[in-house]
Amino acid sequence: MPKRKQKKAPVPPAPARDSSRTPLYLVAGVALVALTGVVFLITGKPAPRKVSFDVPPADGVLPTAAVTPPADPTAPAKFQEGVALAAQGDYKAAIAVFEEVLRLDPNAVGPRANIGKSYLELGRPADAVRVYREALRRRPNDATLHDMLGVAYGQQGDYQAALLSFENAIVFDPNLASAYNNAGMACIERRDYPRAIEMLRKAIARQPTDIRAYANLARAYTEGGRPDQVKPLLDKLAAENPDDPAAKQLIESLTGSAAPGAR
Asked: Is-contact 188 27, C-beta < 8 A?
């Protein structure tokens, strides 16, 4: 009798990549830590790490002018209460207040944006990703929301998703300097130094006084095998920030000599 052909068993799908795990990187340049917030790990095992993603603004909340006030007449005061709590660093209390605002207006984007920012400050990037994605469903063309979503992915160590979010931010606002700086940092973490240099140059072109972008570009030049480009970069930094102590400190830390005009 002829043998029956056996059917091949279906091949199981490959497991999804766990984007919450941080890849290993052995990096140098600890001198930038105090100036830029970059944390370099020299380690033999995965660990959470921070890179100098640009998380504007410094007071911990999005500018009030950039958000949509809730429709309920009692909500604006409550929203401002959350802004004040976040500015004081009480992010857990701020989240609770912004969630109250959302109960009054479930489609409001401003409170969600501030909740996401508060989660980032609390070191809870997975929660921030969830909140920013909810906000983007309601306002998909908002460049700042894409930028902040990328920061959340970056804090998780998922630099590919982070880069995609930063690129989306640039599509919707080609002049958003923080998105270029952040895209450059994501490229550094992926060791794509030519692209990192391109993005960081664009960040500086749009915001010539941003010391973080200069520090990140100096790192990209150094790790990318172009250390000869660091001095011209620092000369530009000194020219753009002649009276900024942080700029002078960065220049001194990288060159071993005082910046032009430093006492």
From this structure: no
Q: Determine the 3-state secondary structure of 249 from DSSP.
A: helix
The reported pTM is 0.71
Distances (CA, A) of 167 to 20, 125, 157, 175, 180: 21, 19, 17, 12, 8
Query: How many C-beta atoms lie closer than 10 Å to residue 72's C-beta?
Result: 14
| pLDDT, mean of residues 131-142 | 94
Cβ pair 87, 60 in contact under 8 A:
yes
Give the right CATH number for 55-173 from 1.10.555.10, 1.20.1330.10, 1.25.40.10, 3.30.70.940: 1.25.40.10
Over residues 160-196, the pLDDT tens digits come to 999 999 999 999 999 999 999 999 999 999 999 999 9
Equal fold, 55-173 vs 175-249: yes
Q: What is the DSSP letter of 29?
A: -
What are 64-79's pLDDT values in tens digits? 333 344 444 555 788 8
Buried b (16+ CB within 10 A) or exposed e, 20-49: eebeebebebebbeebbebebbeeeeeeeb
Extract the runs of DSSP E, i.e. beta strands, from the chain: none
Q: Where are the domains of the chain?
A: 55-173, 175-249
